């Protein structure tokens, strides 16, 4: 049985996936598991692979969704991305992004896209 937080996370991932598709990306994988953790969404556009961490919040009481991704998480995601590339034998450009999804109150979902976050660490 899926818990409340899992349902919210899944909803955020679904919204983020549709957002990426509207921006020309094709979702090629979801919830890829490694010993370093999970990559929420993996998308492709032409010869570029996008590894995406999705963070969703119902309230901003504990900060913006993207603030939940720290340097340690980024490093784990980078290791997971390298494993994915090796397993799939992809030799292409790739990057790590964060998609922040706010589902606060009765407002429309707010989606923000933070591109190439690994370059900040």
UniProtKB/TrEMBL annotation:
Q: Which Gene3D superfamilies match?
A: 3.40.1350.10
Q: Which GO terms describe its molecular function?
A: nucleic acid binding
Classification via InterPro entries: Restrct_endonuc-II-like (IPR011335), tRNA_endonuc-like_dom_sf (IPR011856), UPF0102_YraN-like (IPR003509)
Please name the CDD domains in this protein's record: PoNe_Nuclease
Superkingdom is: Bacteria
Please state which protein family the record places this protein in.
Belongs to the UPF0102 family.
Q: What NCBIfam families does the annotation carry?
A: PRK12497.1-3, PRK12497.3-3, YraN family protein
- Under which name does UniProt file this protein? UPF0102 protein A3A02_02530
């Amino acid at each position: 049985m899926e818990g409340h937080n899992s349902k919210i996370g899944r909803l955020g991932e679904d919204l983020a996936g549709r957002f990426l598709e509207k921006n020309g990306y094709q979702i090629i994988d979801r919830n890829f598991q490694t010993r370093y953790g999970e990559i929420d969404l993996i998308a492709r556009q032409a010869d570029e692979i996008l590894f995406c961490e999705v963070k969703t919040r119902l309230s901003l009481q504990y900060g913006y969704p993207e603030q939940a991704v720290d340097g340690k998480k980024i490093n784990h995601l980078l290791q997971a991305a390298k494993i994915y590339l090796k397993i799939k034998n992809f030799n292409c450009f790739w990057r790590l992004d964060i998609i922040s999804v706010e589902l606060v109150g009765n407002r429309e979902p707010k989606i923000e896209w933070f591109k190439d976050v690994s370059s900040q660490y």
